[in-house]
Design brief:
alpha/beta; Rossmann fold; 8-stranded mixed beta sheet; 9 helices; globular
Length: 245
């Protein structure tokens, strides 16, 4: 990539990043509940050291949205390390970039379960991501980031729609559930109900994309916050629930 293209690309990144932070701040002012820095929600977490892979870059979707925020991933991985999560369940694998971070920042004996719908349903969307112009087949797309790494043996890839999948095997066993599948209201609601059933005694749920780009996520979490105690982690796009921590 030429220097000119790099400058244009980084300029776009910075501009989109500013707009996203601005509109996120706007929406949090309207809807936010228990907005706290992560060190207040998880005392002692500040000493945790995180090692991210591949997040020196930010990837853009068709609409100019930043796909993955390093701030979000730092926060989630810090929580994984802080609570000593041994079983992690990700709802929405996508390219597997988040999955890879969870593996890297969890104990050697940890297991990461991750579920995604059939690859063919996502080929058009995920091929549009900034992936150094690599042409991926539909089957390559799901979990692309972790498939050729040494960490893949810690990952169990499941296939199915979270609306209809039977999660009974995982009830009361999962230490951290990451909700980042379909962002429609019905899906967020169903995934949240599923996550609450899966939690272990020290379990934590993390919802991604709490920002104005996904109004159904905001709407549902605002409703859920009237029933259980939720925390918006300031400086991120995540909301968390702690079961007994």
């Amino acid at each position: 990539m030429s220097n000119t293209l790099i400058k244009i690309y980084m300029g776009l990144i910075n501009r989109v990043g500013f707009l996203r932070r601005f509109r996120s701040k706007l929406i949090h002012n309207v809807y936010s509940f228990n907005s706290l820095p992560i060190t207040k929600v998880f005392p002692g977490i500040g000493s945790v050291k995180i090692d991210l892979i591949g997040l020196e870059y930010k990837y853009l979707g068709d609409d100019g949205e930043i796909i993955t925020s390093p701030n979000d991933m730092v926060a989630i991985c810090a929580i994984i390390k802080h609570i000593g999560a041994k079983k992690i369940f990700e709802l929405g694998t996508a390219l597997g970039l988040s999955t890879l971070q969870f593996v890297k920042n969890s104990d050697d004996d940890a297991i990461i379960y991750t579920i995604e719908r059939e690859a063919a349903q996502y080929s058009k969307t995920y091929r549009s991501y900034f992936l150094n112009e690599i042409d991926l087949t539909p089957e390559q797309i799901v979990g692309w980031y972790y498939k050729n790494t040494d960490f893949k043996n810690k990952i169990i890839q499941l296939r199915g729609d979270t609306l209809t999948y039977d999660f009974g095997l995982y009830y009361n066993k999962i230490d951290l559930v990451f909700i980042d599948a379909c962002h429609g209201f019905r899906s967020v609601e169903k995934d949240s109900h599923t996550a609450l059933k899966m939690l272990s005694e020290k379990g934590v749920i993390v919802w991604h994309d709490y920002n104005i780009a996904f109004p159904d996520v905001i709407k549902y979490l605002h409703r859920l916050s009237k029933k259980i105690r939720l925390y918006y982690i300031t400086g991120t796009n995540i909301v968390v629930y702690k079961k007994n921590i």
